[in-house]
Amino acid sequence: MTWSKILLFFCTLTLSACGVSMKEEDFRATQPILVLEEYFKGETTAYGFFEDRFGNIRNQFKVDITGTWDGTTLILDENFIYNDGSTEFRRWDITKTGENTYTGTTENAIGEASGRTSGNSFHWKYKFNLNVGDSIWKVKFDDWMFLQGQENLLNKATVYRWGLKIGTVFIAFNKTEEDFVPQPHETASPQN
Description:
Layout lengths: L2 H15 L18 H4 L2 E11 L4 E13 L3 E10 L4 E10 L4 E5 L3 E10 L2 E12 L2 E14 L3 E10 L2 E12 L17
Antiparallel strand pairs: 1-2, 1-10, 2-3, 3-4, 4-5, 5-6, 6-7, 7-8, 8-9, 9-10
């Protein structure tokens, strides 16, 4: 490989890393409004997969989630079933710290996660000890969730290690009709 090709490769890599990223305020006017503790209260089912940085699907999974809200803290009990038959339990304790802000902890998180809702979106960031084979990798998650309709929440989480993207997790959450309770701002006005 010639020096000019090597230089072109690194310039392309640098420019692609400098792209414009999403901001919470970009979604302020989007509907329906996502209220995290209302969406996750009760039973939620999710399906997802991990795609490595080369575009290969490395793992697929289903998650059954039970959420409870006590007025301050949202507890999410997550039961994962992976496509290889293995299982995992994870519990998130998510505290509402302001009108649209949250912090959270779970067993393998490094420090606290932090997040903010804006319109139909939730932006959630945290560091995590990720089991990879016989190793534990310290990684960073940058999650974006978007409420689509009233029952579906789509999640795209970019995963970084040493500042480099190693892959993306895609998850689709779904509420069953019996678990969905319309919010006051979504109730139709009476007919005249």
